[in-house]
Amino acid sequence: MARLIFNFGEEKHARRIAKGIVERRKKDRIATTGDLAEIIKKAIPRRLWSDKVHPATKTFQALRIVVNKELESLAEVLPQAVAALKNGGRIVIISFHSLEDRIVKDFFREQAIDCICPPEIPICSCNHRATLKIITKKIIIPSEEEIKINPRSRSAKMRVAEKYKI
After folding, report:
1. Which has the closest alpha carbon to 109: 131, 80, 140, 84?
2. Contact assessment for residue 85 and residue 151, using Cβ atoms and an 8 Å cutoff
């Protein structure tokens, strides 16, 4: 459990949180999300709580990502989305988590080059051809003004690519 919370929630206190959950389950059932949030809050030192983000946010995010298989679904849908594009069509992806963004960034990069053979192979044997041109060299993030209007946008990262005209 600690590994899932750490890997998918990027939560530094994953072990303490997992230990708190295990200890609570020995005594009583965790019946509500409120119960779980309280366990998590107790596991994280008060001085480390953020004013903007609830202490349980990262843990709930990790649980949501694992249960819904969000990263696997994203990796599966990206090639399908590109295949559905017409030549010159654009794909725009907004991610809200660094793990999601990494999948999108790596996919776009791989689809924007002609050869994906390892560097130690001198002659290309993969026959891979670029299908995308990356439009946004750097991610687009919300402005401070947008974050004030919509605080949930604070973690949004947008990337854009265009399908090559063949």
Report:
1. 131
2. no
Ranges of residues in the chain with a pLDDT under 70 are 166
pTM: 0.82
Determine the length of the chain: 166
Maximum CA extent, the chain: 64
Can you tell me whether residue 161 is helix, strand or coil? Answer: strand
Site of tokens 């994953």: 14
CB 105 within 8 A of CB 159: yes
Considering only CA atoms, which of 128, 140, 141, 130 is closest in space to residue 108?
130
pLDDT at residue 49, as a whole number: 85
Q: Bridge-partner residues for 134, per DSSP?
A: 161
